[in-house]
Write a structure and sequence with these properties.
The complex is a heterotrimer of chains A (394), B (454) and C (135). Chain A is an alpha/beta fold. Chain A has twelve helices and 15 strands. In chain C, 44% of the residues are buried. Classes of the chains: A alpha/beta (394), B alpha/beta (454), C alpha/beta (135).
Chain lengths: 394, 454, 135
């Protein structure tokens, strides 16, 4: 018997019943499982618990703060691992200058502390303890050199310690931290009251959506005809995810996966609409872009179908701009080498291929000075998600 | 449309490439003169063929170079690609080509094939009607190879390992495997229409103290990966080691095991050739001595029964040779080959047995990796240091193997790192080494060993 | 003693780099080799992560100056009192004289500057320097 696939998102959920995908806006007055049952009970009742698979991004993912010794090793490696485990990075702190940082205001799901190879003198001292006093967090983990473990365990008793992510050749060691973060994410999903109720429906483990998408990427080449090197842009209600082929970056890191992930936390078209507009207004090309799309700035004030479409186009533009060499980020993607751009998520219901083409034309001609744009692959039927749910996770 | 076809269309759609007419290209390959195919030449002429190296930025200079090669009846022409194109940076290649065309100075160290395009290049290729070999060093050669084949260049050098580990620091190896899989597929595709396209591995690797076991293993692997995708004609290769006996031993083992592994994996219907690179290390700063070194290399190529020799020039130590010097080198090599007759067949049973055992042991370790595809087994083996190329700049390379020369100049394994060299073989290797003067002396020894021909 | 080493900038001289690594190991140093094409920030960060005693930068294509000029800025930013900074290789383009080159690199913050000096000779000087520094 075929499986029923369910994705619980921050703004809507979608259901894949025998290849047929339906989407429903969420009703936030209701508990998720009640909401789901109210709309889809007849479908859900057709399936046995074992045949229902659920993934969720409803919680918007976990948040982390990284405190590391250097940018090139500690912080960079922790960022890679966190992003690929589906975690949002709130901020990073360069430890030697920790006194200059203000702790984040929000409550963090996990704080990651890292620094040094194993065979090295102690790094962390009272400065860290002072700083942590003002940080609100649920979990804290240490993945640095051996000689700090004793001190940290004594002063931060709740700290969990895993294998150093920097090995003795200064290369990355992903395994243990990745596993811990992935599990934490799972626990978080399971621990949420409203999601907990979903286990009344399914006998299978509930996975985080970004994890499912990442698992699908090696199949995307074949199933969706995307040509390497490609990127997948997933613009959601609250955040935007990019998954990219690793040969688009020039980095001295050997990673397990062919693809890497990057998250823009406050860049979505519903929940973080204000933030999106704010970053758009601060981009030097945006007025030319609006002009090119034949709309005025007033579009931001509107609440229409047209304005939603423009916002989504803007989101694609901003994301490309942020990963290009024209913007300082921890990675620069070689976009001139890109062969395909895969667009997935709620956005494909709003934008047509022409709308996406228009924005890519603008970006490639204006910013990269290229005449040809990469091929556009629209994941209309959420195939990446279905591939991930059926082939990626077993 | 098939997946492969759609992929090809995406690859050839490029800012710097002309539009590809696949139907026309297939027609061209079908009707192409057999003399353009090196696989055909190998079949027809059972003698040692000579091929120089060379590439200039402009069409005119490339044409002049070929004219010079033609004068000395060069068997195979080279087309060496510039370093920007190798890194897929066609924008810079374009700029530098324009500057080279406007001024008399060459701003590129090779021929920017993408920018010239296949239609133009094909005119030159068909004019000379001699097989051409594409020499590059590109991890992602998909567009380059499409353009080369469309131009009538029917031999493609390289491979996911031999064009990555010696040249790149951080290009992801898994992607290199996938991109070369595409190259093999395209070569296999065009092989149906006429004589087969020949693929050649670059066994010289870093050309610095690489022990034969590593060279042979990588040759076998790249050959098998090509055959898996349907390639029918393949050249394994290696570069002069510095010890005549080691060259003979390497050649005998490589010939035996390449055929054996190909057959064992079900690729009986394939042709395997042997290519020998004249000395690839540092040359003496003396043209006359260099000429002697080159003559010696040619002699060895004939002695080991290679099918093709790739030549150097006596100006090697002084930069890019003139077209005249390059052609003269071919003429000398060809002369040497012509007068060398009736060479004895030599083998060294003990050495061959040891080398064979080493190769089999490493191959077994690779095949034992739990991954489900050969390329992934190889990728994991490189990560684990089972394959370890001395002096590779790539971050994935283990860099634990250390080699030195024995008193007969043969390259011996001094430290084996994680390469699974059987105990007996490693003891044999060690027994040959005679380094005097404690640990500090080893580096002086290696420096001397690298510069042995200077 | 720990040494971070590598070739700076757009320089691909891997043979020299590897020989330096082997030499240092044979002399008993613990070596962290960042390889070819390494940038100053990576060198500095590697020194911090490993708590190295020596940073040994090599350059063979003569273009080191542009890549290493900012060393003094990093020395102002972090406490590197116990670290010895060494650069060696071919440090100038064309016929540059050692007497012109050495003071320039010293002014950027290098303690030892080896211009066109034999590898073992340079490492002998380094070992002597480290011995004196300790006592």
């Amino acid at each position: 018997m075929s499986k029923l696939l369910i994705d619980v998102g921050s703004t809507y959920f979608k259901i894949c019943d025998n290849g047929n995908i339906e989407q429903y806006f969420r009703n936030f007055d209701k508990d998720i499982s009640d909401d789901l049952m109210d709309t889809c009970a007849p479908i859900i009742k057709k399936y046995k618990k074992e045949d229902i698979k659920i993934c969720s991004s409803a919680n918007g993912g976990l948040s982390t703060l990284i405190i590391g010794l250097t940018e090139s090793f500690s912080i960079r490696y922790a960022k890679h691992i966190a992003y690929n485990a589906g975690i949002n990075i709130i901020d990073t702190v360069l430890y030697p200058k920790i006194e200059e940082y203000t702790p984040p205001f929000e409550i963090l799901d996990v704080v990651i502390i890292v620094g040094g190879i194993d065979n090295r003198a102690k790094i962390f001292d009272e400065k860290l303890i002072e700083y942590l006093k003002n940080v609100k967090y649920r979990n804290i983990v240490y993945v640095g050199g051996k000689n700090d473990i004793e001190f940290l365990k004594k002063r931060v008793p709740e700290i969990k310690v895993f294998k150093n992510i920097i090995d003795n050749r200064l290369q990355i060691n992903e395994e243990e931290l990745k596993e811990y973060l992935t599990n934490l994410y799972q626990e978080d999903i399971v621990g949420r009251e409203d999601i907990k109720h979903l286990y009344k429906i399914t006998a299978n483990q509930i996975y985080p959506t970004p994890y499912v998408v990442n698992k699908a990427l090696p199949f995307v080449r074949e199933k969706l005809n995307a040509v390497d090197p490609f990127i997948v842009i997933d613009i959601g209600g609250a955040t935007t995810d990019i998954h990219y082929s690793r040969d688009l970056v020039d980095e001295n890191v050997v990673m397990e996966s062919e693809y890497d992930r990057l998250v823009f936390k406050k860049l979505g078209v519903y929940k973080s609409r204000e933030n999106l507009i704010f970053s758009a207004k601060n981009n030097e090309f945006v007025y030319e872009l609006l002009n090119y799309l034949n709309v005025t700035e007033n579009i931001f004030e509107e609440n229409s179908k047209e304005s939603l479409k423009i916002l989504m186009q803007l989101a694609i533009f901003l994301v490309l701009y942020k990963v290009s060499k024209y913007h300082e980020l921890y990675i620069d993607l070689k976009l001139e080498r890109l062969k395909s751009i895969v667009i997935t998520g709620g956005i494909v219901k709003v934008l047509t291929k022409e709308d996406i083409e228009a924005i890519l034309d603008f970006f490639y001609k204006k910013i990269l000075k290229h005449h040809l744009i990469p091929s556009i692959v629209i994941d209309k039927n959420y195939e990446i998600w279905t591939i991930g749910m059926t082939k990626g996770i077993q | 449309m098939s997946l492969f076809k759609r992929e090809r269309e995406a690859i050839v759609r490029n800012e710097y490439a002309e539009e590809f007419d696949f139907a026309e290209i297939e027609e061209f390959v079908k009707k192409a003169d057999k003399r353009l195919f090196i696989s055909y030449k190998f079949k027809k002429e059972k003698r040692l063929l000579a091929q120089p190296r060379g590439g200039f930025p402009t069409y005119e200079k490339m044409f002049e170079l070929y004219k010079e090669f033609q004068k000395v009846d060069t068997d195979i022409f080279p087309l060496t690609i510039d370093s920007h194109t190798r890194l897929n940076d066609y924008a810079t290649a374009k700029k530098m080509l324009e500057l080279s065309e406007e001024n008399e100075v060459d701003m590129l160290n090779g021929y920017p094939l993408i920018n010239h395009g296949y239609k133009t290049t094909r005119v030159m290729v068909t004019h000379f009607n001699t097989p051409i070999s594409l020499r590059h060093g590109t991890p992602d050669a998909r567009l380059l190879v499409e353009t080369a084949l469309a131009s009538g260049i029917f031999e493609i050098e390289g491979g996911p390992i031999t064009y990555l580990l010696p040249y790149s620091k951080n290009f992801p190896l898994d992607k290199a495997f996938l991109y070369w899989k595409y190259v093999e597929k395209v070569c296999a595709h065009y092989s149906q229409f006429n004589e087969p396209i020949n693929r050649e591995s670059f066994g010289a690797l870093t050309a610095t103290m690489v022990p034969p076991v590593i060279t042979i293993v990588i040759q076998l692997i790249e050959m098998l990966l090509a055959f898996e995708e349907g390639v029918k004609s393949f050249s394994v290769s290696f570069a002069q080691h510095g010890s005549v006996n080691q060259d003979i031993v390497t050649s005998n083992v490589l010939k035996k095991l390449s055929r054996e592994y190909a057959d064992k994996l079900g690729f009986e219907d394939t042709e395997i050739h042997l290519v020998y690179h004249q000395w690839m290390g540092a040359f003496p700063y003396d043209k006359e001595l260099s000429a002697t070194l080159i003559d010696m290399s040619t002699f060895i190529a004939a002695l080991v029964g290679a099918n093709k020799i790739i030549t150097k020039t006596k100006e090697e130590a002084f930069g890019i040779p003139t077209k005249e010097a390059n052609a003269q080198a071919v003429a000398n090599t060809k002369y040497m080959i012509r007068i060398l007759k009736n060479l004895p067949k030599i083998n060294d049973e003990e050495e061959e047995e040891i080398l064979e055992e080493e190769v089999r042991s490493v191959m077994e370790a690779i095949f034992n990796d739990p991954a489900d595809t050969l390329w992934r087994k190889v990728l994991n083996s490189i990560k684990k240091g089972i394959i370890d190329v001395p002096f590779s700049p790539h971050i994935i390379n283990a860099n634990e193997v250390i080699t030195v020369r024995d008193p007969q100049n043969a390259i011996r394994i001094y430290e084996k790192g994680k390469v699974p060299i059987p105990k007996r073989c490693f003891e044999y290797e060690k027994s040959k080494i005679a380094v005097k003067g404690g640990r500090k002396a080893i580096v002086d020894k290696i420096i001397k060993d690298i510069g042995i021909m200077q | 003693m720990k040494v971070v080493t590598g070739v700076v900038g757009n320089d691909i001289h891997v043979v020299a780099n590897r020989l330096i690594e082997i030499s240092l190991k044979e002399r008993g140093f613990e070596v962290f080799n960042l390889g070819v094409n390494t940038y100053l920030e990576e060198f500095i960060d590697a020194v911090i992560e490993t708590d190295a005693d020596v940073l040994l930068i090599s350059s063979l294509n003569g273009e080191a100056e542009g890549w290493c000029r900012d060393l003094f800025l990093y020395k102002q930013r972090f406490n590197f009192d116990k670290v010895t900074f060494v650069i060696g290789g071919n440090l100038g383009v064309g016929e540059t004289k050692a007497e012109d080159i050495i003071p320039k690199y010293k002014s950027y913050g290098f303690d030892l500057v080896f211009h066109q000096i034999d590898l073992n000779e340079g490492l002998d000087i380094l070992e002597k320097y480290l011995k004196e520094k300790r006592s």
